[in-house]
Amino acid sequence: MHTVTTVNVNGLRAAARKGFGSWLAGTGADVVCLQEVRAEPGQLDDGLRRPEGWHAYWAPAAAKGRAGVALLTRSEPERLRIGFGEPEFDDSGRYLEADLPGLTVASLYLPSGEAGTERQAEKERFMAAFLPYLAGLRKRAADDGREVLICGDWNIAHQPADLKNWRANQRNAGFLPEERAWLSRVFGEEGGYTDVVRALHPDTAGPYSWWSYRGRAFDNDTGWRIDYHVATPQLAGRCVKAYVERAATHAERWSDHAPVTAVYGP
Amino acid sequence: MHTVTTVNVNGLRAAARKGFGSWLAGTGADVVCLQEVRAEPGQLDDGLRRPEGWHAYWAPAAAKGRAGVALLTRSEPERLRIGFGEPEFDDSGRYLEADLPGLTVASLYLPSGEAGTERQAEKERFMAAFLPYLAGLRKRAADDGREVLICGDWNIAHQPADLKNWRANQRNAGFLPEERAWLSRVFGEEGGYTDVVRALHPDTAGPYSWWSYRGRAFDNDTGWRIDYHVATPQLAGRCVKAYVERAATHAERWSDHAPVTAVYGP
DNA sequence: CTTCCAATG
DNA sequence: CATTAGAAG
């Protein structure tokens, strides 16, 4: 029985100034996955670095002020792992994994970039290395009788239903054919994972989890669904509820992403 | 008859957001010298670039967001000059000169830097080139029967009375022996100029015109007098009133400097 | 449009 | 402690 939330905070220090703390205090989740922390633990206030009632783990990027993922868990994990074994990304602040009893849960922040740039090439290298890792992780977990849940900002919308203007974005990073095909492999035989939110809501547009700060994207709900719960099928089948906490970042707008929460039954 | 104000605005766009406009609307000056504009004219709102009732002249630095001086005059100058003939500093946004009838007035922003750095070396090169220019300017003006007034942020406190903690600052840029000696030459035979505010207030501590943003420098009046009216002696003798508008940047604090105003009688 | 950094003051 | 620009998103 787990309630898990993932949210890209777009700078935890800025988010904390604008209300992240009260959101965290009010959440019923027992696992929170954070992305784009953009700070080293030492740059965070005590109450944020070690929040009351949580075990907190940080994987900052070597580059200051960039990326950075974290995991907050109500119970203490048995094991932690930073990175997924690809040296280029080991200290890039993009992957942090924890073993809880019967469940491996990870916070992922996949690179983003504009089409045709070096950043996009980096994203593609990440994708190429990460898929085999994911597949291997699922197989090892199956052998151990564990479930796996990779939460985070994957920076890719999978299908037309996953963003407002899919036609206009077919040549934009985040909805490129090769990115979508890669996600299909994650969700297909090769990866063997399930897109939890889409499985529960097969016919909705969205629910979006990111809206650009530019223009009136949030007000018009011109969003993208790029933050996922990616789970082994058995775990996904146990999900009884999944939703985007649009209101959490609405009034105070402490991030351009909204938390994505799923409740996994026993 | 002139009322002249000089103020380092520490970024005119930021100052405008915080109340520079209402200060300008309320000033009785007919010449305003600005330093650290930190913007090209095109980056300023219309009302700021061409303020109602003023002629406005801008000398931005080639390096974006750095330095930049300006002159606002109620009457149109006969001539304008950017730089003082030293190529290194011609487009550094540090010197702008205007000829009004019988008066040459300039806005100066002398480089600042930390002792022992390349910035300090640049400051010293500026000082070395600027003193002969000043001396020549005074002589030419004398031949023409003109007065000269160089207003601005000279980034040097001259004497112990010109900063709160002079003992602690003897090795800090802005109060180094060589900088003080250079100002003494400006105010001595070689330059031939007068420190207008000090001439009127020979026995006051300060009045300071800059307070660091760090700590409680402003509240404790831990300030420096580094913004000067530097005038030919005859003009200085006509000064009937000289003061620092501490309140102008107190309530709203639109700069770390305060305006320094002097009234020159006929 | 917002984050954070770096250089600068 | 504040400014601006620039990289990044």
From TrEMBL, chains A, B:
Name of the molecule in the record: Exodeoxyribonuclease-3
Site feature (Interaction with DNA substrate) residues: H257
Cofactor(s) this protein cannot do without: Mg(2+); Mn(2+)
Cofactor binding annotation: Probably binds two magnesium or manganese ions per subunit.
Site (Important for catalytic activity): D227
Domain of life: Bacteria
Entry keyword annotation includes Magnesium: yes
Active site, per annotation: Y109, D153 (proton donor/acceptor), H257 (proton acceptor)
InterPro entries assigned to the protein according to its UniProt record, in alphabetical order: AP_endonuc_1, Endo/exonu/phosph_ase_sf, Endo/exonuclease/phosphatase, ExoIII-like
Positions of Mg(2+) binding: N8, E36, D153, N155, D256, H257
GO biological process: DNA repair
Residue intervals of the Endonuclease/exonuclease/phosphatase domain: 6-257
Protein family: Belongs to the DNA repair enzymes AP/ExoA family.
